[in-house]
Prior knowledge:
Blueprint: E1 8-11, H1 21-36, E2 40-45, H2 55-68, E3 74-77, H3 82-95, E4 98-104, E5 111-117, E6 123-128, E7 132-137, E8 145-147, H4 155-165, E9 170-174, H5 181-191, E10 197-201, E11 204-205, H6 214-217, H7 223-228, H8 233-241, H9 257-263, E12 274-275, H10 278-291, H11 294-305, H12 311-326, H13 333-340, H14 345-348, H15 355-358, H16 365-381, H17 388-402, H18 404-416, H19 424-431, H20 433-446
Parallel strand pairs: 1-2, 2-3, 9-10, 11-12
Antiparallel strand pairs: 4-5, 5-8, 6-7
Amino acid sequence: MKNNSPVAVRFAPSPTGFFHIGSVRTALFNFLFARHYGGQFVLRIEDTDVARSKKEYEDNILENMRWLGLEWDVFARQSERADIHATELQKLLASGAAYVSKEKVEKEGDRGEVIRLRNPGTIVTFHDEIRGDISVDTTDLGDFIIARSPTEPLFHFSVVVDDFLMGITHVIRGEDHISNTPRQILIQEALGAPRPIYAHLPLILAADRSKLSKRKHGERVALSYYKQAGFLRAALINYIALLGWNPNQNEREIFSLDELIHLFDIAHIQKAGAIFNEEKLRWFNREYMRTQPPELLLQDIVKVLSKRYFAGAVETLAPKIVSSIRERVSVTSDVETMMDAGEFSYFFETPVLDAKKIIWKDTSTETTRAHLEKIISFVTTLTSDFDAEKAKMVLWPYAEHQGRGAVLWPMRYALSGREKSPDPFTLAAILGKEETIKRLKAALVAIS
């Protein structure tokens, strides 16, 4: 990448829809590149499509860029640079590189004036840092329109002018813009503007290898979906950075933002499309959640459980269950899913027991009663502040001698009323001595 100017890149989204995963990666790669080389990162809102551009979409872009931590050095709104574009357009008209053409205007159906670029019809060859040299015969493009009027330049012209005057040295964008590049190079040549270095990123694909799109894949293409689900910023950045880029660190996958900045190299971006795998993203998120202080997950647990259960009970029990929940969730929204499935109900409500399920396999009722009575006697010896380890220390030798399933299954089911739950020692510690004994006695009554 030979360029003697200080590095300057731009992320130039159009505010015509909510911030999506493809845009996140384009923004991230530009940010990493700029920071790696100590260059400038420009955020430019390309809102010249007045009909489709909306303030809510621009706000969504800015909010999400800040949330991701992708802070920009320069901000620009293309619509506010109209006078600059018009001045450059006049230069092309004056030089004869562009001309006014009277023709039917598409929307009105009447004859109007548009401005076209005089196309020399040459073969344009440009080097793409990812794909190598690309050559296009521009003859078929004809004298294409670059403005609707002297004050209404179109996308291609505005982009070239802004890149030129803002000193953009590298254009890193999606491969769907490759077809735009020959037109933009012709405009650069007409303006006498230097050619930036191009790198066109591979598409992000769904599991079926189709292009990830809102039309086909719905809300799952939007960053807001993952934010609302409780995915962590660091996990999203880490995962998305590896979509189509290899840091060449053997099998290592977890990287901080600073490490990504240090390692980022366009030469290691692949040509093939990158598959977006939500399960893999969940794995990344689970890894990051495990490194977070438990207090952060505790806040989410309290918030979710308080929607359904008495706040006082939630605040008492939540600190006791945070560790077991932490091992079972990949993202904080899983807590709500677990609650909806009734997985926490036994902490707050006395379970309704099925007498047949209390008994382990072919163990007799009499033996099960004896085990439950023995468990009650062991729990009675515990102090009121016992934890799971202390409960296990007292109960485990008996369970080992009598058969773990025959002893621990009745205890576990008596405390939870469910076939799947945390281990009985953890349950007893969370419920407390009094409630544990109460539920064990209820199980004894149920099988009488």
